[in-house]
Amino acid sequence: MTFRFNLLLILTLLTLNSCTSVKVLHCGDEDPNSDQVTTIDVQTDSITTDTADVDTDATITIIDDFDVLPPLAFVDKTDPEEANTEDPKIEGINIFVNSQTQKWINYYSTKAKKRFQRFLNRGNKYKSVVQAILKENDLPPELYYLAMIESGYSIRAYSRAKAVGLWQFMRGTGRKYGLEVNYYVDERRDPIRATESAAKYLRDLYLAFQSWELALAAYNAGEYGILTSIIRGKTRSYWELIKAKKIPRETRSYIPKFMAAVTIGQNPEKYGFTVKETEAYPDISAVEVPSPISLKNIAKFSKVSLKLLKKINPHIKRRITPPHHATYEIWVPEEKSKLFKNAKKKLSRYKIKKIKKHYVGVDNRYYHRVKKGQSLYLIAKMYKISIAHLKRLNGLKSNKIFPNKKLRISTRSYRPEKKKLNNTKSGYYKVKKGDTLSAIAIKLKMSLKKLKRINRLHSSRIYPGMRLKCAKKNCSERS
């Protein structure tokens, strides 16, 4: 029975994303403990990386010890008819500074300071919109810094492993999570669509591994590779796995790099950085246009500059929408979106008539038509989004849906959140050995419930060195 379960577990994980490849060092980082170097072209901001040092003799061994298996979340045995209408809880990320994280903090703030400063400045343009997408998908805002160590927030980032864009998606993984990649478009370069897909992928990984350290390691090395490491190492602790060197060499430094980026990003002045105010990402909306049609004619129709259209649609490679779609959604400034509501006939005259179609198109990929017997649970699972997000997208107040109803499955518009001005800026409390969450709450003169809420904690488990967010008047890097 255990043998059959183990085999089912591995096969189930393989179906999660069979196309994931091992990714390697990003952003031109050098491993402080290694002679291996990756590079970034400062002139073009194109990123190249060397191959990770992965054990070539790694094999999957079926074992009978249930205790060393990954959590049951890998196997979804939920009966659709009895499915819970609530989303599974997703914990916050515990950011703490240990010796390995400190090495990367030192590296980023000294040897790689100019490069990391450039990443902070460039990322600032996308920060509000990326964190808005993460929030919509009920994911921790700290994941914004994951794209920073992946690509340095360059949409032109391209690794030697052929990973592309802000989130460094491989072609197969991108397609699996809804990104179109072909001769005409590469949606891995679209910061919004790529972030939506990254949110789906990260959500899947967390629900599978039930640990942010393992989920992020799997984002870098592939979930199958991390499952192999868990089985070979006989532990689900990321830190124990890297101590035993069961995880690929580059992935051992991936989580410390991420935590270092978060630590610096949350308090850049402390580490000698000043984040420059950059032009905010524009408020944009998705509009449907006949396809194929050139961006030049869309600019002419909408009186939006061609330069701006190309800037907010960096994924359109040939300056025309893909001809294998009858219609295609592009981004336009929000104030111009109303022009496109009833403009299909007017725009049709600009449609390119003679052009070779290289692919089979899938239209209406931004909507789902409800079929008999389908529930919100099944539809959310099908498109790898939360039930809450699906309800918000469609303005639903209950879980009741009816056959033939048309549901939107991706956000139509994005407005970067405006920064709220208040006098209660946040500070941090550093957890000491022996501290409990309730004792810290009393010390900081706030309720336990509030302390857990602002730190996105669903349990009272804390670790020495962990930084807890709190009101600045009550704490400021207290320890």
Could you outline the blueprint of secondary structure elements for this entry?
Blueprint: H1 2-16, E1 39-40, E2 47-48, H2 99-109, H3 113-136, H4 144-151, H5 171-176, H6 191-209, H7 212-221, H8 223-233, H9 238-243, H10 249-252, H11 254-266, E3 284-290, H12 295-302, H13 306-312, E4 327-333, H14 344-348, E5 367-369, H15 376-382, H16 387-394, E6 406-408, E7 413-414, E8 426-430, H17 437-443, H18 448-454, E9 467-471
Antiparallel strand pairs: 1-2, 3-4, 3-7, 5-6, 8-9
Can you walk through the features of this model?
This protein has 479 residues and is mainly α. It folds into four domains: 2-79 and 86-271, Lysozyme; 284-348, Membrane-bound Lytic Murein Transglycosylase D, Chain A (Roll); 367-414, Membrane-bound Lytic Murein Transglycosylase D, Chain A, CATH 3.10.350; 426-471, Roll (Membrane-bound Lytic Murein Transglycosylase D, Chain A), CATH 3.10.350.10. Helix content is 37%, strand content 8%. It is built from 18 helices and nine strands. It has helices at 2-16, 99-109, 113-136, 144-151, 171-176, 191-209, 212-221, 223-233, 238-243, 249-252, 254-266, 295-302, 306-312, 344-348, 376-382, 387-394, 437-443, 448-454; strands spanning 39-40, 47-48, 284-290, 327-333, 367-369, 406-408, 413-414, 426-430, 467-471. Strands 4-3-7 form a three-stranded antiparallel beta sheet. The termini are far apart. Mean pLDDT is 77; it is low at 1-9, 17-22, 24-28, 30-83 and 419-425.
